[in-house]
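Hey,
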Amino acid sequence: MGEAAVFTIGQLARAAGVNVETIRYYQRKGLLEVPERPVSGYRRYPQAALTQVRFIKCAQAVGFSLREIKELHALGQGRCREIQALTERKLIELDRRLAEIRSMRGMLALLAARCGENLDEKERCALLEALMKGCLE
């Protein structure tokens, strides 16, 4: 016999720290199985559903997309090489995004400094001017 069903959707959501719509979204995305609806009308979710939602949230917290999370879950135990490859690709992507964020921060700091040069309310804002001209020249 399988695991006993222990949660309604609301109970599952509360236990996982998400809202009911998040559970439904994960179901639509194929990340979480939809239990059959019994005659009573209320679906019951097994403990494994709570484990899966927590897995999804934790994987999101370290930067994996829902597509990647689905791929990780599909790989399952015993596929460490493939999981490592996916994780290394994620690290490369995060490094690229960090470089972009650093660049954006630098441009924004320069724009903020330009703004600080001209605080006269009657003149045009240097930041808005720079953005309208295509950022930094």
